[in-house]
Amino acid sequence: MANAIEIAVVGHTNAGKTSLLRTLTRRGSFGEVSEQPGTTRHVEAVELAFDGSCTVRFFDTPGLEDSVALFDYLRALDRYATPPERIRAFLQGPEARRSFEQEAKVLRTMLDVDAAFYVIDCREPVLPKFRAEIDILASCGKPVMPVLNFVRHADSRAAEWHEALSAHGLHALAHFDAVAPFTGSEQQIYRDLTTLLRSRQQQLEAIVAYLEVERLERRSVGLAIIASLLVDVTAMRRTVSTEALAEPIARKRFVGEFRAAVITRARAGVDDLLEVYAFGKDEADLAVMPWLDGRWEADLFNPEALKAASLQLGAGAAIGASVGAVADVALAGLSLGAATAIGAALGGAVSQGFGPLGRSVVNSLRGREDLSLENEVIQGLATQLLGLLLALEERGHAAQGKVPVAATLAAAASAGFDGVVKALVPARGRPEWSLQRKARSARHYPQRERLVEDVTARLGVVFVGAARTQVVR
After folding, report:
1. Domains, in order of start, for the chain
2. Strand pairing partners for 121?
3. Residues in the chain with pLDDT < 70?
4. What number of other Cβ atoms are within 10 A of residue 270's Cβ?
5. 302 and 339 Cβ atoms separated by less than 8 Å
6. Which of 26, 37, 80, 465 gives a 20 to 30 Å CA spacing to 471?
7. Is 174 helix (H, G, I), strand (E, B) or coil?
8. Residue 199, Cβ density class (10 Å: 0-12 exposed, 13-18 middle, ≥19 buried)
9. pLDDT per residue over 239-285, tens digit each?
10. What is the pTM of this model?
């Protein structure tokens, strides 16, 4: 097995070196990130491991603080020595422990690694201090690849940096954004490195391939989490007598308990998505998903939100209630198998606007009603969860604050939700499919699993469409 590729991550103070490593290693807690200069004071190693083996070993280094003065100092050393010899002479001298202590830590690391990522905050103008940094780093005799960080920021000066770096002979460089990395940027940074480390090309190509597999696996797991959640909430039903529903206080309590059960399951799904993408449970911006904070009227169960969703579904009419009464004739003298099928069909019909007739039939047969989620609510939930998944794919682990989740996906992509919601209809007649996560492993429902697989595939099509629309924008 080849030795791990060792890379020094160097650059000016506050260029985003630690932020870059947080995103590349998917470790949001690595190091310390601050707007104060000189936050990193010591060299710290962090490894990128695949299949249990360290493939890349990064070294996070202190920021270069006074490169102009150090450049002048190095030029005064033996002019007949090679650049690496002058660096070694400097490191053995007294100034490496005094005026340039931080720079000395960087250069010692540079001499021992395979290559360096020279991280540049491309929002900064090209100043003389950066030119001095480039010359000093090049003096170490190791391949240096500039990484233009924060390229997606509105204040990016990437074009200016391209020109300046080319003037110093640094034509191989990478674009990155540690806060909002674009899809494939992690893989691209290693592809770019192959131009400087030809002897490690096969190893770097293997890293690129592994990262792509990991990316697709995260997405697949995320879509399956959302699909399983949608099956759960579609199957959820709560039975109550007609007399109890007629009593306002009892009805309010019953509906409130049902809503609370929905929200508990939804919150668990959000936590699962965050875990898959290695983010903390407190990083989802619940402000854009008010239903997770229990503010029902603000979003998920809001009649206006449901009206918009119903138009997307083509139901033809807005619904006025947040939770619909769905018929279930399972105990009306029919066999269990037949009742399940009839219950699913009738339940779906009632949910889609045939409520008055359906409810009167059920009341006469059973004298009680079942509550379940309207299709519009399910679509709203699916839309926001896919929006969260899309946001997680484009979020770096150096990002501060909450995940900025879009409330809805692009209209062109959300049209595919019609098929997703229709595919969920069989779950309406199977309340036993709605299980707590801990209990799910104890009972096996092959039909449920097949439905989850089908919904996952449908969600995948919608997600890809939304992602493409996002890129075009």
Report:
1. 5-196 (3.40.50.300), 217-472 (no CATH)
2. 149
3. 1, 28-41, 80, 180, 245, 284-370, 398, 404-415, 435-443, 469-473
4. 22
5. no
6. 26
7. strand
8. exposed
9. 777 777 677 787 778 777 877 788 888 888 888 998 998 888 777 66
10. 0.77
